[in-house]
Amino acid sequence: MTPYIELKRMAAELTKRFDCALFGSLGLALTYPEVLDNPPGDADLVAGNEQKNLKGIIQFLQANGYTVYSWEEPVTEGFDMEILKGRFYIRGIKHIPPYKPAIIDVTYELKGIDNRQILRMTTKKKGIRILNIDGYIMALGICEKAKHLQERELLIKRKNMIQEKQKKEQTLLFGMKNKLTFATQNRKRLRNGLRLRK
Question: Which of 49, 41, 119, 144 is nearest to 88 (CA)?
Answer without folding.
Answer: 49
